[in-house]
Amino acid sequence: GSRPVKKASLVALTDAAFDKDEGVRWQIKLSLHDLGCxxxxxxxxxxxxxxxxHKQLVQGHRMAxxxxxxxxxxxTVKQLSQTLxxxxxxxASDEMTKSSEGAEVDKLKExxxxxxxxxxxxxxxxxxxxxxxxxxxxxxPQFHExxxxxxxSVANVYGVVPHLPGxxxxxxxxxxxxxxxxxxxxxxxxxxxxxxxxxxxLEHSDRAPNPVLKKSLFSQEMYACYxxxxxxxxxxxxxxxxxxxxxxxxYMVHLIPDEKLEDELPKLISGILxxxxxxxxxxxxxxxxxxxxxTGVHMTSQVLDxxxxxxxxxxxxxxxxxxxxxxxxxxxxxxxxxASSIWKARxxxxxxx
Length: 353
Hints:
Residues 32-253 form the MROH2B-like N-terminal HEAT-repeats domain. Pfam families: HEAT_Maestro_2 (PF23210), HEAT_MROH2B_1st (PF23221). Residues 257-322 form the MROH2B-like HEAT-repeats domain. InterPro entries: ARM-type_fold (IPR016024), HEAT_MROH2B-like (IPR055408), Maestro_heat-like_prot (IPR045206), MROH2B-like_N_HEAT (IPR056282). It comes from Callorhinchus milii (Ghost shark). By secondary structure, the protein is mostly helical. The protein has a domain at 1-121. 67% of the residues lie in helices and 0% in strands. The protein has helices at residues 7-15, 22-38, 40-53, 59-76, 82-96, 103-120, 124-134, 143-155, 157-160, 164-171, 181-203, 216-231, 239-252, 258-273, 282-298, 308-320, 331-334, 336-340.
């Protein structure tokens, strides 16, 4: 067995976690992780007490300790008591939502967000309750609050998805309040992650603790969000944001009500195809078209036939493009089927999303 860990030794390690020598810092993180895997309660509680006691600790030092805690929690979350879990959640939430700003503070908030996600892999209800307290209707949430919800939904699908109907109802009206690109990016990313986790939940609902959830529980809010992203934000000149929107729409289209999507398909296909001519990553555009066709085929859409003439020229151009260097899932390979006939879109269904 391992030798008992003395608390004084842990405090000394925690105190030295921000040594000026990077090699020493790395060695201390490894030591804390090793000790934490043997005695997670003691090590995490010591780190927590150190952070609470030393409120004026420099950002880099706080970040080093929180990063060490996250690494320990990731490997030992099943061993944590609920009391310690709640205390870590409370501390990480406070760190993540501090009003101060700056590059160093952003890194600290990111580490706190990662710690919340790690704890949320087991204590998802508690993490969601903590964040939802801060999600007040009529008030724009902080970037990292939104980001944490998205990351947690993918990390703990079965724990989070049952809460998403309520979270989406609260969050959807907030989209119209987002004026700055970084908040639009946060909402765009979280919607894509929500859609991914919902689709995974629905696909494997037999394993879910609450298998009565249906697509219809999410579809109205997803449609409302889709309208804002597609009809509004996609016109943004920021290429990074446009690409993120295309990636998220790829998953969101599967959750739009069939009758609404049937009406939207011509406009949606046309709008996404035009992005080939703009500075938007063509791989993401092609993948989005694939998802749109996949959804249309599965719901036996009546309008896909009428889109052949719109689809063929840009897809043919992608096939012939000499710049296609995107690896094994190069779009030019995957576009052979729709270029032949829209109904051969069925053969595209084997292309990994």
